[in-house]
Design a protein that fits this description.
This protein is mainly alpha-helical. It is 79% helix and 0% strand.
Length: 70
Amino acid sequence: MTPKKKNPNAVALGGLGGRARAKNLSDTQRSEIASKAAKARSEKLTASRRSEIAKRAVAAREAKRRGGKP
């Protein structure tokens, strides 16, 4: 079974819609929308997965502070 190919015209129109909406939003509005999305994603995570992500973030910050890789 071959995978279905996306209609390139539909893909182009979909991208224009998102970009056009983003142009009409202020930085504050985009930030609020992003915050809501991040909260919704984090609520779906298990506690252990959230902990793992947080540990990686701390390691990345420390590595950046030291000037090296995590």
